Amino acid sequence: MKKITFLFILFFIAKLTLFAENYERVLTERASIESAFSINPDMLEYAQDLEYARQRVREAYSLYFPVVGFNLNLSRFNNSKPMIISEQNYQVPIYLPGGKKDLYHSTKLSVWQSLYAGGITRTTNKLAHVNLNKVKNEENIIKSKIINNIKTIFNECLYHKALISFYDMKSKIANNTLLKNKKDVETLRYNQELLRLLNAIGLDLNTITSISGNLTPKIKKIDLEKCFLLAYQFKPEFKATQEQQTLDDLMLNLLTMQRYPNISVGAAQEWLGDKIVGDDANWYCTVNLNIPLFDGGAVFARIKQGQIKHRESIIKRAKLENDIKLAIAQTFLEYSFFRQQAINAKLLEKNGKYNESDIELIRDLNRSYYNLELAVGVELDSY
Question: 246 exposed, middle or buried (CB, 10 Å; 0-12, 13-18, 19+)?
């Protein structure tokens, strides 16, 4: 009886596995985008960059805390005169007294705290936080590209799907071999676009899938000035240029601060002798002031380099802004052209009963609409 039950369980598991392998996944445009946000390789790579930036913030914040050190040295020696061990592996020189002692311990506990570093600590923390915001903003850039890519591919899938239905219906009515051949070609292209869609989402290419939805024209009244306004307000690339300018300013300040004095305090307790912690102990408290006077002009050269890079970044940001404006203007002209053609063809009045030229027009119209969205940096359906 147990054997029969075990075989039945194995048979049931095999059936479930076979069903899972042949399960057809139906994708919509919005579901494809949401899936891509969680499994797309670009998003996974971004998650690592974000965690790296967070660790840099933690590292910069640690500069506010004191540095605590503990050093333990055990030496076995035979010498007639005192010796000093100053090898590279030792953090501090070790003094070995004379007297031919077999074992000698050196135990030291120290605490150092920086009081003033010319603003380097504060600027380093600001730099780390601005860099974190910059990385977070890059998420919006990645998401914008993923959304546009999936929308464009999905539009191609709907386009080929609409042509397949159109040729299939016409070939059944007219029994035309040419139309059947066209249908086969569109079926091939549809399957190719499905593979592109799976790759853009991050799904396995062997996933059995189909798409849900119909090809509908994106006819929306849009003003060019509004597109520019939305871009300045939401486009991640514009925010990236502002954050990069802040980073450049902070880096220049950081280089300038290398000329300022540094003040630190420290305290240490040290035990020497035959025991790890013995009666023979030393301690000290100290205040250290370091004033850089002359390093051959290296600091001034680094400051000059920072100023050159700062001016270079300003030029690059101005060029980027001009490129963004040009892309918006070009895509707006393209969309306006196809929108007017769609209005002239009265696509909205046809209620989905499109001919071959209508389907081609809707494909071009929607593609230009998605290109405009990418140039502006937002989904225009929300505005």
Answer: middle
pLDDT for residue 18 is more than 50: no
181/171 Cα distance (integer angstroms): 10
Tokens of 125: 């923390």
Sign of CA dihedral 359, 363, 364, 365: positive
The CA–CA distances, whole Å, from 51 to 45, 54, 310, 338, 357 equal: 10, 5, 27, 44, 50
Tokens (6 digits) for 383? 């505005």
* pLDDT, tens digit (0-9, with 9 covering 90-100), for 125-161: 998 998 898 888 888 889 999 999 999 999 999 999 9
Q: Give the C-alpha distances (Å, rounded to integers) separating 292 from 27, 117, 181, 263, 286.
A: 65, 12, 81, 12, 19
Question: What is the longest distance spanned by two Cα atoms in the chain?
Answer: 114
Nearest to 92 by CA among 292, 284, 280, 264: 284
Rg (alpha carbons) of the chain, rounded to whole number: 35
Q: What is the pLDDT of residue 309?
A: 77
**Confidence at residue 337, expressed as pLDDT on a 0 to 100 scale:** 96
Task: Name, in order, each residue with C-beta under 8 angstroms of 65's C-beta and a sequence gap of 6 or more.
Answer: none
Around Cβ 135, how many Cβ atoms within 10 Å?
Answer: 18
| DSSP-based three-state secondary structure for 104 | strand
Helix (H, G, I), strand (E, B) or coil at 95: strand
Residue 183 is which amino acid? Answer: K
Least confident of 18-22, 128-132, 173-177, 279-283: 18-22
Give the residue from 255, 245, 246, 298 showing the smallest Cα distance to 119: 255
Asked whether residue 117 carries a pLDDT value surpassing 80, the answer given is yes
